[in-house]
Amino acid sequence: MYFYLTWIISILLDILTKYLANNYLSQEIPIISDFFALKLMHNSWIAFSIPVYWAVLKVMTIVLIAIIFIYYIRNEKNEKSRLTDCAFWFILGWAIGNAIERILYSEVTDFIKIKYFAIFNFGDIFINVWVIILLTLYINKTWKNIA
């Protein structure tokens, strides 16, 4: 049950933060000088402003990732911990939040700017944080099996 709750929370947080950015972020707001700021941008590329020019490829990539996650969650259940389950559902939720925008508007709302890097949103951050957590768990499990 909590899996669905984490999934719904991540989608709602994604929608809420993008709503706030779209409605209240009319100009750039510096947070740490010109290094870190809030700046509204509508991005037709994929995560962290990586360019992908074919809309069909974008949607296919999103759908493929969702299918892989759902398959893994449903078929590998006995092998995982609650943290792993939580990570997968959060990743799926944020990915769906971005996919909804991409399908409806052919772009995603980004609003976190780091100089010399990219403009991105919370979904991009949390997807990457949870992927790092999953990789860490996988590496730890692999090392325990080797030892």
Summarize the SSE layout with pairings.
Elements: H1 2-24, E1 29-32, E2 36-43, H2 55-75, H3 82-105, E3 108-114, E4 118-120, H4 122-146
Antiparallel strand pairs: 1-2, 2-3, 3-4
Helix pairs in contact: 1-3, 2-3, 3-4
Transmembrane segments: 52-74, 86-105, 117-139
Organism: uncultured bacterium
Membrane topology: Multi-pass membrane protein
Concise overview:
Keywords: Aspartyl protease, Cell membrane, Hydrolase, Membrane, Protease, Transmembrane, Transmembrane helix. The chain has 147 residues and is α+β, with helices and mostly antiparallel strands. The chain is 63% helix and 15% strand.
What does this structure look like?
- A hairpin with a 3-residue loop joins β1 and β2.
- A four-stranded antiparallel beta sheet has the order 1-2-3-4.
- The chain is built from four helices and four strands.
- The model has no long low-confidence stretch (mean pLDDT 80).
- With 147 residues, it is α+β, with helices and mostly antiparallel strands.
- The protein has one domain (2-16, 28-146).
